[in-house]
């Protein structure tokens, strides 16, 4: 299977928003340099400033799995521990006929 997409929605505790935003930005920068990464974007909800959404696009499942073992991803997990009010991760396979 190829072209795996991930949406991760994280709601941070307000007192950690600025701290975690920097951690999120570091994660994005490092992840974009990974082999197999097509796209890695971070968004902030316009109605809830504590809600962040990651959109990821990976060449295949193997690249996504390797991402989970990287030092920068593990650092992100450790930094966010106990500082969030919610997390939802959806992994998807693109079944449409997109050309990009």
Automatic annotation (TrEMBL):
Report domain ABM positions: 4-98
Tell me the keywords, alphabetical order.
Monooxygenase, Oxidoreductase
Checking PROSITE patterns in the record gives: ABM
Query: What SUPFAM superfamilies is this protein classified in?
Result: Dimeric alpha+beta barrel
Q: Origin, by domain of life?
A: Bacteria
Q: Name one GO molecular function term.
A: monooxygenase activity
Gene Ontology CC terms, in alphabetical order: cytosol
What PANTHER family would the database entry show? ABM DOMAIN-CONTAINING PROTEIN, QUINOL MONOOXYGENASE YGIN-RELATED
Q: What is this protein called?
A: Antibiotic biosynthesis monooxygenase
């Amino acid at each position: 299977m190829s072209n795996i997409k991930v949406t991760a929605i994280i709601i941070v505790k307000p007192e950690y928003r600025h701290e975690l935003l920097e951690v999120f930005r570091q994660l994005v920068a490092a992840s974009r340099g990974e082999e197999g990464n097509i796209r890695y974007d971070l968004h902030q909800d316009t109605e809830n400033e504590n809600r962040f959404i990651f959109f990821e696009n990976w060449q295949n499942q193997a690249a996504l799995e390797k991402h989970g073992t990287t030092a920068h991803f593990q650092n992100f997990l450790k930094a966010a521990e106990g500082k969030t009010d919610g997390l939802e991760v959806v992994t998807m396979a693109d079944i449409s006929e997109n050309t990009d």
